[in-house]
Amino acid sequence: MKKIGFLSFGHWSDAPGSQVRSGADSLLQSIELAVAAEELGADGAYFRVHHFAQQLGSPFPLLAAAGARTRRIELGTAVIDMRYENPLYMAEDAGAADLIAGGRLQLGISRGSPEQVIDGWRYFGYRPEDGKSDADMARDHAAVFLEVLRGEGFAQPNPRPMFHNPPGLLRVEPHSPGLRDRIWWGAASQATAKWAAAQGMNLQSSTLIAHESDKPFHVQQAEQIQAYRDAWREAGHTREPRVSVSRSIFALTDRQDWQYFGTRNQDEDHVGFIEQDLQAIFGRTYAAEPDKLIEQLREDEAIAAADTLLLTVPNQLGVEYNAHVIESILTHVAPALGWR
Asked: What spatial distance separates the first Cα and last Cα of the chain, rounded to whole Å?
């Protein structure tokens, strides 16, 4: 059995054929797709976070709104760039959104990927400490965020407050019990996957990872997952961790599917540089008739190793078509692979 959700980048543009032409379209359609996915029996609605781009940005209003409109489906991010975040304010927002959703948030956080502007986090008011990098800053922000989510008091109360205080040190409110165990780290390498395990975070692995050997993408990703699980056991955590992978998967079941994705099936991975000193390997796109798709996916070792699969969706094609994409996988592919 495997949890299956969708991952949307929330793009909008006025390009011909786009059904998502504004930020309002993107946000409202994201909520509608979460509702539709829940009705179809999907397990998760996840959203990517980018800044200075015509894509989904601040996630918590969206997660709270989707939480108010749904009852069962998990709601998450993949991922929030911690270089841009005030961890205490983020803890307040996350706690509020999680309470609205009834404890269904699954928050993916990370150092983040290359952004639209140079050092965009500087415009948000953040600077790495002397001798530290922006990646160090992201991890420092994450450490504070994780600690605050434990719900322990740390702030000295005012002896003459406007309102009555409970005894002892005060914590950030509202606090949502259990949210600390539903934080994921988006890891690109085996080293960061091991670090995430040591911190007690779940693991998110994307459609691209650091190119660390000459093996196929799915094998390298499966090895990353195994390294994470080994590190988790070594750390002595008591709960079972969760692991997600994301994939572009399209079952070609009708004429429209063939029109959009009939030529998109890729037999090979791609290698390239996403940063000056980081070579990455990009996983293939799967697009085929259901029978062929099932056989192709049987060979994907990383999907087999993960408990959660996130389907990247072409959100600019609209809610109805994206619901069809999700339903096709749930109906025509997942049962044959034992995912349902």
From this structure: 5
Specify the DSSP class assigned to residue 334. T
Q: Which amino acid is at 258?
A: W
> What's the rounded Cα separation, in Å, for the pair 122 and 278?
22
To which residue do tokens 């195994």 refer?
226
What are the residues whose beta carbons fall under 8 Å from the beta carbon of 263, sequence distance 6 or more?
none
pTM for the model stands at: 0.96
The backbone torsions φ and ψ at residue 121, rounded to the nearest 5 degrees and listed phi first, read -65, -20
3-state secondary structure 265-278: CCCCCEEEEEECCE
Give the single-character DSSP code of 331: I
Domain boundaries, given as residue ranges, for the chain? 3-337
Q: Are 237 and 314 in contact (CB under 8 A)?
A: no
Tokens of 23: 């930020």
Strands (E) located in the chain: 3-8, 44-47, 74-81, 105-110, 183-186, 202-205, 208-210, 243-251, 270-275, 278-282, 285-288, 308-312
Under CATH, to which class is 3-337 assigned?
A: alpha beta
Token look-up 């740390």 returns 154
CA pair distance 26, 214, nearest whole angstrom? 38
* Three-point CA angle 253, 267, 256, nearest 5°: 20
Compute mean pLDDT per 10 residues along the chain, 340 residues long, and list them: 97 96 98 98 97 96 98 98 98 98 98 90 97 96 98 96 94 98 96 97 93 93 98 97 97 97 82 81 94 97 98 98 98 97
